[in-house]
Structures are given as C-alpha cells and as structure tokens.
Specification:
159 residues, two-stranded antiparallel ribbon, 7 helices
C-alpha cells in the first residue's frame, strides 16, 4: 500500500508541477502549490512506512497475516461503490439529492443506524453544505435539473 501511495504521490507532484507551485507576489501560493506539497508530504510518509516495513520496526511489519480480510474487503468495496454512486448521481440529480441518497444508504443500510439519526443527518448535512457553500462562501455546487427547486431559496438569500 505504501508503494502504491508513493507512486500516486509522484504522479500528483508531476501534474501539480505543471502549474505554478511557488509563491506569487501579492497573491499568495500558486494554484499547484497545495497539491504539490501535500503530495510531497504523502510521499515522505509513504517512504517512511516502507522503511519501517523493510526494517521490521512495527508489529504489523513483522506480521504474516493477510493484509486485508474478506470482510474488510467487502466493506471497502461497498464504500467505494457507494462513493461511485454519489459521483454519478451528482451528475444526474445534483450534489444535494445525491448526498441525501448516499447518506440514506450508508447510514441506514451499511451503518445500521436508527431511522431518527439517519433522517436527521441525511437532511442536516446537505442543508449545512448548502448554507456553507452557496450562502456563506458564494460557491455554487452542481444541482443538475433540480436547480429550479432552489430558486425560492435564492430569492430569500439574495433579496
């Protein structure tokens, strides 16, 4: 896993270096600075993890057990599939309804939380995200064909 993370880090660093990764006088860091330096940090940690594994410093690095069990792989697969659904649904119905459906599935059917907690979070989190991005930061998020449903809220926000 550390090797895979290191390779991804190098790829991200190369792509980020296509942008300005330095300081722009009077403006701040260039558009590639954060991705580049975060990837550099991830590369450093990945190399440290590989070193600790090679030297057998941690109990995990000396273990001969399977890296990932079947049950763990199932949970990771369901999580990855759920996130893929979130991304595809965002394109189709917009971020807020896609997030609502994702939270319904993940909280209730994967996490087995109560209906009360599921409903509170599946309504509360999209509302919080809307207030943060659309209202406070003035950053519109994708809404697809559901955008007309938000017009009355825009009228309240901008009048």
């Amino acid at each position: 896993m550390a090797v895979l993370c290191a390779l991804c880090s190098i790829g991200l660093m190369v792509k980020s270096a296509e942008l300005n990764i330095g300081w722009i006088e009077g403006k701040g860091p260039g558009s590639g600075a954060w991705p580049f330096w975060l990837s550099a940090g991830m590369l450093l940690v990945s190399c440290l993890t590989m070193y600790r594994w090679f030297r057998g410093i941690t109990p995990e690095s000396r273990s001969t057990e399977l890296y990932i069990t079947r049950d763990s792989l199932l949970v990771v697969g369901i999580s990855a599939g759920s996130i893929l659904f979130l991304l595809v649904a965002t394109h189709i119905v917009g971020i807020y309804f896609a997030l609502l459906l994702f939270l319904l599935f993940y909280l209730r059917f994967v996490g087995h939380h109560s209906w009360l907690l599921t409903v509170v979070l599946m309504v509360g989190i999209p509302v919080f995200i809307f207030c943060l991005f659309e209202w406070a930061l003035k950053i519109p998020l994708p809404k697809s064909f559901t955008e007309p449903m938000f017009y009355p809220i825009y009228d309240l926000m901008y009048s």
